[in-house]
Amino acid sequence: MPSPSNDISATRVKGERLGATRFTDPINHPEYVTDTDKVKRGWLFVVMTLLVPGSVQLIADRKTLGRRALTVTFTVWALALLFISLWFIKRSIVLAIFTSNVVLIAVVIALLGLAVGWLYLFLDTLRVIKLKLLPQRARKPLIFGMVALMLLTGGGLGYTAYIANTGRGALGKIFHGGTQLQAEDGRYNILLMGGDAGADRVGRRPDSMTVVSIDADTGQAVTISIPRNTQNAIFSEGSPLWKVYPNGFNCGDECIINALYTDVTQNHQDLYPGVEDPGAQATMEAVSGVVGLKINNYVLVDMSGFQQLIDAMGGLTINVGDRIPIGGGTNLETGEKNPIDGYIEPGTQKLDGYHALWFARSREGASDYDREARQRCVQQAMLKQLDPYNVLTKFGDITAAGEQIVETNIPQDSLSSLADTALKSKNFELIQYAAGPPYYDHMFPTYPDFDKFHSDVQKVIEDSKSGVAPSPAAEAAGFFGGSTQAQGQPLQSTVQIQTVAQLSPNGTCSVP
User: Which residues touch 361 (CB under 8 Å, ≥6 apart)?
Assistant: First the structure.
């Protein structure tokens, strides 16, 4: 006996009772429903394709396609749920996966495939809707709505693939070092350097040097700033420079610590065979001797691309305490004064890359400690004011700037540990310290007492485990995000501070 037909027909099939109710099929035969129901059906299918790709095809006339699309949809949901769960259970696994070059390539391919597939399902859904059957007034809104959703979904996945691929390339270019990130006495010690190789300088010199010491378990971080004019930096016996400078880098006033980079680059590269950047390696060894901590890794930020990076971020807003000259200082090659081309005025200023660069590097009328205070303001502003919208819309520019200005010996496979520890550190206030004002007299870098400084550093690190900062006055001197105007109050910690130095107005600033 033939089965009843699914088609719409006025003819009853054999076995059907006279007067039995016949229901139309609005899924496959919208021509038999009202205009209002046709419009509702069309928008329902659009929403179904947005929320559950493949569901329309499954209930319509392409069930094989629908089943395959739903399999992909549910697999993506399951993977997303798995990674979300892993993020809260074992975050380092997720970070290790998504910092792997091979995984990132697979992610890019998968995202592009999902984008193409989703767009195809939207187009097929338009076929199922049967646009010609819709009232004329309802066609354009539905088409515009579907195009908008196609841009949101397929376009969004495509742009995410672009970001993933760009990030993969940047990670591979920046983090290609060979020194594994490893904890020393339970802490990751990393040297951050800000290098400057301007037209008026001979070679690159790291004008700012900061050791970031992070508790490997908790993420509590301490930063220790080393003034650029620190003298007599000492080396361990394991350093190649031990034989050259057994009594420290003490050849006179010219042998300040930021000159070591150029000295090694020009005169002692042969002591570091196979090392990509002997100057950075030697500076790291010298700073290790100064602070008394074993430092294995460094990150060097070259100011040559700093302007481009700040512009890509959308600029920085800083409360400027005094007029900051643009230009000035002395040309080291000619000995002549550089012209002053303008000023950054006091008050709350929105600085583009050009002006932020000069705010950080201007020497005219400033001590080294004033410049370091302004650089701390810039660093804090970069962290505090990083705009997620700018990161997404200008990701290519930001990564291009990052490739240009960032150098490190940290390999890519250590990024997961570093990123996990960095995320933990957000749970704590950043504790800052320095081998100079406002913690020590301004002559301390010239005549350093390394034994005392080593002892003080250990006490600061020990105090940091309980969240104790070196001083309340240091907060008012530019540390922990406060104003950089020191108040001369005694610093309170287990560390006995010699003197709290006064910064000039040139070094006063804060981040709103």
Answer: 196, 198, 207, 303, 371
DSSP 229: T
Assigned token pair, 179: 């020194």
Q: In angstroms, rounded to a whole number, what is the distance separating the alpha carbons of residues 134 and 57? A: 19
- 152 versus 169: the higher-pLDDT residue is 152
Q: How far is CA 43 from CA 24, 49, 69, 115, 116, in A?
A: 19, 10, 20, 21, 21
DSSP secondary structure, 425-462, as one string: HTTSPPEEEESSTTTS-TTTTTS--HHHHHHHHHHHHH
Report residue 396 as tokens: 């290519």
Q: How many CB atoms lie within 10 A of CB 21?
A: 5
Q: What is the residue whose two structure tokens read 């950047």?
A: 277
Query: Which residues neighbour 215 within 8 Å (Cβ) at sequence distance 6 or greater?
Result: 186, 187, 221, 464, 465
d(Cα 92, Cα 81) in Å, to the nearest integer?
Answer: 16
More confident residue, 32 or 449: 449
Three-state secondary structure of 127-194: HHHCHHHCCHHHHHHHHHHHHHHHHHHHHHHHHHHHHHHHHHHHHHHHCECCCCCCCECCEEEEEEEE
Predicted pLDDT at 208:
81
Provide CB contacts within 8 A for 255, sequence distance 6+. 231, 232, 249, 263
Please say whether the beta carbons of 339 and 473 come within 8 A. no
Residue with tokens 């009328």: 365
pLDDT digits (tens, 9 = 90+) for 169-205: 888 887 876 778 888 889 999 998 877 655 444 456 7
* Termini Cα distance of the chain: 83
* DSSP assignments along 259-313, one per residue: GHHHHHHHH-GGGSTT-S-HHHHHHHHHHHHHHTS---EEEEEEGGGHHHHHHHH
| CB-CB contact of 178 with 284 (8 Å) | no
What Å distances lie between residue 14 and 18, 135, 418, CA to CA?
11, 37, 75
- Put residue 342 in one of left, alpha, beta given phi > 0 → left and psi -120 to 50 → alpha: left
* Cβ-based burial of 217 (10 A; exposed 0-12, middle 13-18, buried ≥19): exposed
CB 375 within 8 A of CB 368: no
Report the pLDDT value the prediction gives residue 421, as an integer from 0 to 100.
84
Query: Residue type at 437?
Result: P
Question: Tell me: the pLDDT tens digits for 452-487?
Answer: 999 999 999 988 877 666 754 544 444 433 333 333
Dihedral (C-alpha) 165, 166, 171, 173: value to the nearest 10 degrees? Answer: 110
- Beta carbons of 146 and 126 less than 8 angstroms apart: yes
Average pLDDT over residues 51-76: 94
